[in-house]
Specification:
Layout (H helix, E strand, L loop, with lengths): L4 H21 L8 E3 L6 E4 L25 E4 L1 E10 H5 L6 H25 L17 E3 L8 E3 L20 E16 L5 E15 L1
Parallel strand pairs: 1-7
Antiparallel strand pairs: 2-3, 4-8, 5-6, 7-8
Helix pairs in contact: 1-3
Length: 210
């Protein structure tokens, strides 16, 4: 294959198709325990995490619960994955081996949040959440309307064996932010005048206990 702009553009279309196929066929699990919160900033501060009251029977006046003064900031991070395509493979029409690689990249971009979310689950016994205590703890302070002092609530049972988790997938255990997902292709000439065709899959995301 002649290495020119037309052939490279056609090649990148094939790479993009393979990557999109990987995205479409990916089977991620994080959405079963996480709530997706769009964000256009480098970080987000959630001041309402400890403020949502339980539904109660309406007897007498309303119990108006003010938003909690507790703030929890989630900083977004950028992640990338890049493959370089050798000029010789293009010239020798040996680019078929790259299709599965780009498809795997698409799969990785969709399932990578699983690593973040379930990693937080495992680290919940030693990682602080919005109230300054470990996500899994025996005495989370919870404010109740009409009470001068907060009550404490436990979301764990101490034990000596390996941890196991009972998840209510109807409610998100985490607030996970996903932002811009980009796939780009470029060609660059290095000092030895060889061409490198590169494709990058980038994911801008952050996650936190909520």
């Amino acid at each position: 294959m002649i290495v020119d702009r037309g052939n490279l553009d056609a090649l990148f279309v094939g790479f993009q198709t393979a990557l999109n196929k990987g995205i479409a066929n990916a089977q991620s699990q994080y959405k079963t325990i996480a709530m997706i919160v769009p964000s256009g900033h480098s970080s987000e501060t959630y001041a309402w995490l400890g403020a949502v009251p339980q539904i109660r029977e309406w007897i007498g006046d309303r119990w108006i619960v003010k938003l909690s003064g507790t703030g929890y900031t989630v900083k977004n991070k950028d992640f990338e994955q890049t493959i370089a395509v050798d000029r010789n493979d293009i010239e020798d029409d040996a680019v078929g081996i790259y299709g599965p690689m780009f498809e795997m990249m698409g799969n990785d971009s969709e399932t990578f949040p699983d690593t973040l979310c379930f990693g937080l689950l495992a680290a919940g016994f030693t990682t602080n959440c919005y109230d300054g205590q470990n996500f899994f703890d025996t005495d989370h302070p919870v404010g109740m309307p009409g009470l001068s002092d907060p009550v404490t609530v436990s979301n764990m049972q101490a034990g000596a064996g390996p941890a196991w988790f009972l998840l209510d997938c109807g409610k998100p255990a985490w607030s996970a932010r996903t932002g811009r997902k980009m796939t780009t292709c470029s060609t660059t000439r290095n000092s030895s005048t060889a061409w490198m065709a590169a494709a990058t899959s980038a994911l801008d995301c952050g996650s936190s206990h909520s």
